[in-house]
Amino acid sequence: MPRYELALIVKAMQRADTAAALRRTVEALLERGAVVRDVENLGERLLPYRVSKHSALHTRGAYFTVDFYAAPDIATDLLDHLGRDVDVVRPTVLKKESAAPRGPCCGPGPSRPQGTGTGT
Amino acid sequence: MLALRGVTKLKPLLAPRGTMNLRSLSGAPNPTQQNDDLPIKMENPFKQRPKGCLLCNITVDYKNLQLLSQFISPHTGRIYGRHITGLCGKKQREVSKAIKKGHSMGFMSVTHKHPQFMKDPNICAVRHFE
Known about the structure:
Chain A is α+β, with helices and mostly antiparallel strands. Chain A has helices at residues 15-31, 74-84, and strands spanning 4-11, 35-52, 57-69, 88-95.
């Protein structure tokens, strides 16, 4: 199961430049001995807030997710490397939990709060 | 005379005891009499199905913006408390953590709700004054 997930927000660019940025990122991962499992494209959209990075204000971004298995000590090194990449707006490395069932979900839930029916 | 009166007084005392004794002393018990009024074994017909909170068995992910946006205020983007969402402790914490993760990672807005999700059904017990 994937150990880590890199949620990458890349500057909104032409297709070729985005591909090049992704390629650089994956190569950086492989250099550090990670096994890349999956790269997903979550689409290009408006950022929820303006992000200023590398002396530029970004409004749009392309969202990608990279699942990979890696040793735990490469995370800081990787984030450092990605921070220096001009095309990357915001990199985040997250630990990915294995989808193991955690036993019974919540028991008898709390009493449902009163709906919007009660008038003033 | 006195003896007779004693006997009459004693009779009602002896009668119930006598009948009980008769029953216990009788031979093999009659099967139809014994099993008539025993309860029939069946599953409890009034059993309520186990209640769970809204997100029982639904994985909460920071990428699932639409789901997370249902638990924030459309005006301010604040996360609703447990008494409004009606979620159990575990799920409320998961939702809260996912929303905060989304904030810091640049997936979700902090101060408002994405206009795309404004028309979603209201699952929280909150009333908006329009």
